[in-house]
Amino acid sequence: MMANSPADPNLRRLVDAELERQRWAASVGDVGSAWWALERAHIVSQSDLFLHLRVHGIMLMYGLRTADLREAAGQLLRLALAPLGTLSGRTPVGNTGRARVDPFAPMPVPGDLRRALEEAGG
Length: 122
What we know:
mainly alpha
């Protein structure tokens, strides 16, 4: 389901909360928690093209920052695929967006995110 618009405030708020969590984790050197938050931001962003591209762009930059070239390369591919999936409505629900997962595989949505998306109307 597509979000109401690229500026859907409820969806943007959910994504921004996860990105803030990522920034904090990265600032204290907690790479695992930073990626976890980025994965959650990706799950939430998938229904909105601009947010989806934003999250993949941040994933690309974080992959480069952490010298994870496999992740960075995977994010380049996903930046190319994201518009097709989002605009066609065929994004794999729950997919974390990481290079280590199949970009077409649906995955379970964490319960708290599922509830937040339902409340946000996304």
